[in-house]
Design goal:
single chain, 2-enoyl-CoA Hydratase, Chain A, domain 1, 3 domains, Pdz3 Domain, alpha+beta
């Protein structure tokens, strides 16, 4: 948490007509409008690209007020002050709904699945198992990744009913299983009964060590968010890998849902992977020109996130001291979250980061929460309303001032969908994607890209993709100067 000066008279005034000793009260009917404009004027990353946010746009409070009253509501004002490509900045109607990420729970039977169209049939579809959640009801049943089912509760799955039957339907399901060779569905006698239960997600989906020649390769499949809820558990997982003398690491994010992304947490994960760069620059922040100038003049260290040595005052980070990390993303279903892109970019000046997946999206910005107060912090907020802003306020750079607006290209390209007919067993060396990565580690050769969708299947749905949260970038926890 950063601490900044609270006395506005000690800081540079950004609006020409604002003064420290002026007693001016904003008209009640535009209090929120005024907050929206001034918050974006101070901190919006693209402030210099919006003519109506210019510091010289208004010569007096009265001129500003006249402008604000042309907007019938503050939401339309907020939208008008964003660049056209900004889909990340948000206005929060009730800041009481802003909470720290909670431990991930669900009411589920533990079956994660995909849906494909049945070949040569206009309506029927087939379900296939992508994975089973550990310690769930499904984990105790005779069902596994790669199996197919064609009906639920003796009702044939179709394009129009599969969501109602599998997601919105009864808590108790009976899956009628089938064999499928890519063209013909053959019902078999197997039936699997599943029951939805309250479920708490395990911190780590799968962790193991694979020995190939002289290499001890750690494999970590991680499905949760990157909030502080799971950092201690991840640290314990890295201790297990460390105790097994792992010298290569594969991070499998194929089934990661994203969310809960904070720069501090990402730096801690980076130190678990490395450890040899303690206190060196991991992330640089680039704010709008006004904020950047103030930080550089007054608190330049606040623009830097460094590789930490501890999670907190008493907990040392378990570090693997690696020089290479292999990061598996999925194809079209998962091109990369802002947290993972930040991890990739910030590690690249220090170690070899190998990307397995598709071109990532380039989500290189961070946000903060602004409240209607003199310092935009929560304690002194205006109590007459509950509106808050979460604008993008900065972009991330690495030690070498490199960023990633266009994302990252993969070292090994994956197909948009895993082949439903050849999924393999997660964590086993024969599993197709893991097998390619292991060969790449051993030989340095990415090999020939596989033929995508050789059976020409129509992929309709993936339950993990449906659960992924909107990724509005990484959040920064900090206090701010009230004027800059």
């Amino acid at each position: 948490m950063r601490n900044f000066l609270k006395n506005s008279c000690l800081l540079i005034i950004i609006v020409a007509f604002a003064t420290c000793n002026k007693e001016y009260e904003v008209p009640k009917e535009i209090v929120i409008h005024d907050f929206v404009w001034k918050g974006l004027n101070a901190y919006y990353l693209h402030q210099d690209k919006i003519a109506d946010l210019a510091d010289t746009r208004f010569n007096s409070d009265q001129q500003l007020n006249t402008y604000l009253t042309t907007f019938t509501d503050y939401n339309s004002l907020f939208s008008s002050l964003l660049i056209s490509t900004d889909v990340k900045s948000t206005l929060i109607e009730d800041y009481n709904t802003i909470t720290e990420p909670a431990l991930r729970t669900a009411f589920t039977n533990g079956l994660e699945f995909g849906i494909i169209a049945q070949p040569n049939h206009a309506e029927n579809v087939i379900g296939y198992v992508t994975h089973i959640l550990p310690n769930s009801d499904a984990s105790s049943k005779n069902i596994q990744r790669g199996e197919f089912f064609y009906a639920v509760n003796n009702t044939q799955l179709t394009r129009t009913n599969y969501l109602d039957l599998l997601i919105n339907g009864a808590n108790n399901l009976s899956l009628q299983m089938a064999n499928f060779n890519g063209s013909v569905v053959t019902p078999n006698s197997k039936t699997v009964a599943l029951e939805k239960q309250n479920y708490s997600y395990t911190p780590t989906f799968l962790e193991k060590t694979i020995t190939i020649n002289s290499d001890k390769i750690g494999y970590l499949a991680y499905n949760n968010d990157f909030s502080k809820n799971y950092i201690n558990d991840l640290n314990n997982t890295f201790l297990s890998l460390k105790n097994q003398s792992v010298n290569e690491l594969i991070l499998d994010f194929r089934n990661n849902i994203g969310g809960g992304s904070f720069a501090e947490n990402i730096s801690q994960i980076a130190s678990m992977i490395t450890g040899q760069f303690t206190d060196q620059v991991f992330i640089k922040e680039q704010w709008n020109s006004k904020a950047q100038s103030w930080f550089l003049a007054n608190q330049p260290d606040s623009l830097l996130t460094k590789f930490p040595e501890k999670l907190d005052a008493t907990t040392t980070i378990n570090s693997l001291q690696l020089n290479d990390v292999y990061i598996i993303l999925n194809g079209a279903n998962f091109k990369g979250s802002s947290a993972i892109e930040l991890l990739i970019n910030s590690l690249k000046p220090y170690i070899n980061v190998h990307i397995i997946g598709a071109q990532t999206t380039g989500n290189n910005t961070g946000s903060i929460t602004l409240y209607n107060s003199i310092d935009y912090d929560f304690p002194l907020r205006n109590m007459t309303h509950t509106v808050a802003l979460q604008p993008i306020v900065l972009s991330f750079l690495n030690k070498n001032d490199q960023t990633y607006t266009t994302g990252f290209s993969p070292d090994i390209a994956l197909c948009p969908n895993e082949d439903a007919l050849n999924l393999g067993v997660l964590g086993e060396t024969s599993e197709p994607i893991l097998n390619r990565v292991l060969n790449y580690i051993s030989t340095g050769n990415a090999g020939t890209n596989p033929t995508c969708n050789p059976s020409n299947l129509e992929y309709l749905y993936n339950s993990i993709s449906a659960q992924r949260t909107n990724d509005n970038g990484v959040f920064i926890n900090q206090n701010l100067p009230n004027t800059i």
